Amino acid sequence: MDDVAARVAQTVPGATVECVLKDDRYATTARIRLPDGTRAVWKRSVVVIPPGVRLASAARSLARREADHLERLAGVVGIPALLGRPAPDVFLRAWVDGTTLRERADVPDTVFPELRDLLAAVHARGVAYADLAKEENILVGDDGHAWLIDFQISIARGTWLGAFVPMLQRADRYHLARHVKRRRPDQLTDADREALASGKGVLSRLHRTLVKRPYNFLTRRVVTRWSGAGEGRRADEPRGLRDE
User: Among 9, 21, 132, 160, which residue carries the largest CB count within 10 Å?
Assistant: First the structure.
């Protein structure tokens, strides 16, 4: 906490740290109070690999990419606003009060319809979210509205991976349909059913190869064995559900 507070003070003079939300080998994220009283999320990309080497250039690149995505999506309802880039490896975004989908036993009626519209708006800006399989990336605001957070591995058109955007956007729709099927099957639409059907073929295999398997190998094997980091399941989440 003291180290995070010191780094926040260096990059955002006058800000105070309210709590550290995440501190692992990829990023340090904290909720801070800006000098004007506004709450914000302070995120510093880290990128440390065994046996403890920090890849500074990679950290700067990841921070820049994520901030670029937020800037590209400025004005989209359900995307936290980018507030600033106080250092090459640090950016600030707006804080949103709420709970993640993973933390909720219930899903309000408005969440998935809003999330469909939100995802369509993100795709219209040329961005593939690419991490929608994780319930913790979907935030249900205290006002009941849907938000998307954490654009760390998102991909945008016009970048060196831009050719994969259309495929990963289809994967986004597939993963959203899976969430609806599991959590609110009464809200499944024909478009959801079509996305689920297409996701069982080449799309699903490509997504696992390009995104899921490399990510899971790094987080669940390399980092978990080295640092003890890792995520558990919700208490009510059956084993095997994520891979259905």
Answer: 132
